[in-house]
Every structure is written in C-alpha cells, then in structure tokens.
Write a structure and sequence with these properties.
Elements lengths: L1 H22 L19 E3 L4 E2 L6 H16 L3 E3 L8 E17 L6 E16 L4 E15 L11 H22 L2
Helix pairs in contact: 2-3
C-alpha cells in the first residue's frame, strides 16, 4: 500500500511538471512586448514634461523614468529633444501633486504616514500630427512613512515620488506598447 502511494505521488508530480512546462505560465518577457504602434516609428522624442505645480523636480523624475522604461522595453530609439527629426513625440504635463496625511500616531497626535498623489496628462503624436495615444488624466499614489524623530527627520516624499514615477512609467509604456 505504501509503495503504491509513493508511485502515485511520483506519477502526479511528473504529470504536473510536464503540464506546467508544456502550457507555460502565461507571462512574457518585457523585452518581447507586442508593439501596437504604427510600423514606421523608430524614434520617439520624450522632451522633459511640463510642470504646472510648485513641486521641485517632479517633471524631471517622471520624464527620466519614462525614458528608461521605453529604452528597456522597446526597440525604439529615444531622444530627449523635439527637433522635428523623430517619428513620434511623447509629451507629458504634471497637472497636480498633492500630499495627504494618512495615519496619525495615537500617542503624540503627529502624522505617521502620508500619501503623495500625482496627476498627469500624456499624449503621443506621430510626425504627421496624428494622436497615437492619449490619457489626459493619469493619477498615481504612493504611501510613505513620516519620521517620528524630529532630530533625525528625513523627508520621505522625494523617494515616494521616485517609486511612484517607476509605477507611472511602467503603466504608461505598457499601455502605449501593448494597448492595455
């Protein structure tokens, strides 16, 4: 009886392994993204996003993240200036950046975590002026902890914006390249 149980477990294990290998996991490598842009595009200009807020450097962080993501996930050559030589131009505008308190320390009443929210507008236009992609209202949030010690205070909002920019870039490039 024990011998049959061991054989049955081995058989099931082999069957499961074989079926996983044959069917695959359903994921694909990001370097093999299905590109849905017109075939004539090989160069995309991504000028620095416009910043309509008082927030320092947010447009630079978002633009750099998008350039990095396009470069790593697509066959397109990316240039940072729009001199008219690119096949398409991706323009972005940082519309608002807001920080909201999320939780408070029950003993001190001080804020212990916050959320930073960025709203942007992006548009990809080919060299003939046709809109290839547009989203006028991207909204991304990132939570971060607020330092409790005043003497060792470190503002966590810039690192939160950095993390948020990577999420923003991944989502934007996936939508442009794969049509999600």
């Amino acid at each position: 009886m024990k011998r049959t149980s061991v054989k049955l477990k081995k058989a099931l294990s082999s069957l499961l392994t074989s079926s996983l290998l044959l069917t695959g996991c359903g994921y694909h490598s990001s370097t093999h993204a299905q590109v849905r842009l017109p075939s004539g595009i090989s160069t995309i200009a991504v000028p620095v996003f416009v910043n309509n807020t008082q927030s320092y450097r947010a447009e630079q962080v978002l633009t750099q993240a998008v350039v990095r993501e396009i470069t790593s996930r697509s066959p397109y050559r990316v240039v940072t200036n729009d001199d008219g030589s690119s096949d398409a131009v991706l323009r972005g505008t940082v519309i608002t950046i807001n920080t909201y308190p999320l939780t408070y320390d029950s003993q001190t009443g001080r804020q212990s975590s916050a959320i930073v929210q960025i709203n942007t507008s992006v548009k990809l236009v080919d060299k003939h002026g046709r809109t290839l992609f547009e989203n006028p209202n991207y909204s991304f949030r990132e939570q971060y902890q607020v330092s409790r010690e005043v003497t060792s205070f470190f503002d966590e909002s810039p690192p939160a914006v950095d993390r948020l920019s990577r999420d923003f870039a991944r989502t934007l490039v996936a939508e442009i390249l794969e049509g999600f």
